[in-house]
Amino acid sequence: MTEVIDGNAVATELREEIADRVETLSAAGVEPGLATVLMSEDAASETYVSMKQRDCEEVGMDGIHVELDPEASAEELYGTIDDLNDDEDVHGILVQLPVPDHVDEREVLRRIRPEKDVDGFHPENVGRLVAGNARFKPCTPHGIQRLLAAHDVETEGADAVVVGRSDIVGKPMANLLIQKAPGGNATVTVCHSRTDDLEARTREADIVIAAAGIPEFIDGSMLKAGATVIDVGINRVESEDGSGTELVGDVAYESAAEVAGAITPVPGGVGPMTRAMLLYNTLKAASLQTGVEIDLP
Ligand SMILES: NC(=O)C1=CN([C@@H]2O[C@H](COP(=O)(O)OP(=O)(O)OC[C@H]3O[C@@H](n4cnc5c(N)ncnc54)[C@H](OP(=O)(O)O)[C@@H]3O)[C@@H](O)[C@H]2O)C=CC1
Ligand SMILES: Nc1nc(=O)c2c([nH]1)NC[C@@H]1CN(c3ccc(C(=O)N[C@@H](CCC(=O)O)C(=O)O)cc3)C=[N+]21
């Protein structure tokens, strides 16, 4: 039987553990605060940001939300970041990506104080991750690492194929998997749009991480029997019965599930874990910034 890796269940458990640590911080007079910044009118981005705010409330964190007009100047966004950097009540800052074209994304990521960069996208934090000394592991790959561990999927010695090489998913995922540490020690192949004969590579993999952003791109014929399949893709497509839209992953679920040993669904797989790890990083940020020690879950 194919095992369904339930991201909602693992994330719920983790949120409970985080809520417990938030209480410890509160007792010491610290209320962990996460600021989300949205400079977009994209409906999906608005949904994700409001979900993140709801998550904060659930675990007892202080959620602050700043919304900027997508037509506003880049300087206005930089100024907002500077203010949040200086605000002692804010321990974590997340600027929802993508930002409008007239804003330099690199500058946005550089501008956030590395100690508050709960996405882990600041060059200092990227460097630390690559060096095996991470401060904040990026939320999506970290969430995937937790999901694999929760389901006893052994990464050590496994052949892993990561499909996608973005800075927010593919690259940090590959980095975590090759680390000489628990949840690492895999042998990793990173594929992208210029990869020759992708199927031949995915068919050899014990673990496939699909993060190409193409609906139902990986099907059962591309997988080895018993492989663990992690579907990162979030694609909104026309529903088959024409009644509206639905969410599908980068994996053709039905076909892949016939071959895979374990698989994550979309929705309810990686997405909820990404949000839980954001709370985790905010908790860690609050502890590091205030010197109040907690045992991280
Ligand atoms: N569940 C979650 O928490 C999250 C989900 N997502 C979702 O994950 C998906 C990927 O996101 P993100 O990494 O930001 O996407 P990007 O668009 O930044 O990157 C996509 C990557 O896939 C590669 N790619 C494109 N086409 C192919 C192909 N035909 N064969 C092999 N590789 C290909 C690209 O290659 P190249 O570099 O050559 O262009 C690129 O490296 C999206 O669906 C996104 O919505 C993203 C973040 C969090
Ligand atoms: N600075 C920044 N950090 C991010 O981490 C970041 C970002 N920008 N920009 C966009 C992507 C995308 N992303 C998702 C997070 C959770 C779900 C999620 O919770 N999905 C639910 C369902 C969502 C729905 O129903 O639409 C699920 O898969 O079950 C999805 C996508 C974070 N991202």
Write the layout of secondary structure elements.
Elements: E1 3-4, H1 7-27, E2 33-38, H2 43-59, E3 62-67, H3 74-86, E4 92-95, H4 105-111, H5 123-130, H6 139-150, E5 159-163, H7 170-178, E6 187-191, H8 198-202, E7 207-210, E8 228-231, E9 235-238, E10 245-248, H9 253-257, E11 262-263, H10 270-290
Parallel strand pairs: 1-11, 2-3, 2-4, 5-6, 5-7, 7-8, 8-11
Antiparallel strand pairs: 9-10
Helix pairs in contact: 1-10, 2-10, 6-7, 6-10
The protein binds NADPH dihydro-nicotinamide-adenine-dinucleotide phosphate (NDP) and 5,10-Methenyltetrahydrofolate (GUE).
Residues 140, 163-166, 168-170, 191-195, 198, 211-214, 232-235, 270-271, 274 line the site of NADPH dihydro-nicotinamide-adenine-dinucleotide phosphate.
Alpha-beta classification: alpha/beta
- Approximate helicity band: 25-40%
CATH T-level fold name of the largest domain: Rossmann fold
- Low-confidence blocks of residues: none
Overall 3D shape:
globular
- Element pattern in H and E: EHEHEHEHHHEHEHEEEEHEH
CATH architecture of the largest domain: 3-Layer(aba) Sandwich
Number of strands: 11
For the record, the CATH class of the largest domain is Alpha Beta
Residue-averaged pLDDT: 97
| Ligand kinds | NADPH dihydro-nicotinamide-adenine-dinucleotide phosphate, 5,10-Methenyltetrahydrofolate
Provide the number of structural domains. 2
Radius of gyration: 19 Å
Within CATH, the superfamily of the largest domain carries the name NAD(P)-binding Rossmann-like Domain
Largest sheet: 6 strands, parallel
**Strand line-up in the sheet with most strands:** 1-11-8-7-5-6
Please work out how many helical segments DSSP would assign.
10
Distance between the termini: 30 Å
How large is the share of residues in beta strands?
Answer: 15-25%
GO biological process, one term: L-histidine biosynthetic process
Organism: Halopenitus salinus
EC number: 1.5.1.5, 3.5.4.9
Catalytic activity: (6R)-5,10-methenyltetrahydrofolate + H2O = (6R)-10-formyltetrahydrofolate + H(+); (6R)-5,10-methylene-5,6,7,8-tetrahydrofolate + NADP(+) = (6R)-5,10-methenyltetrahydrofolate + NADPH
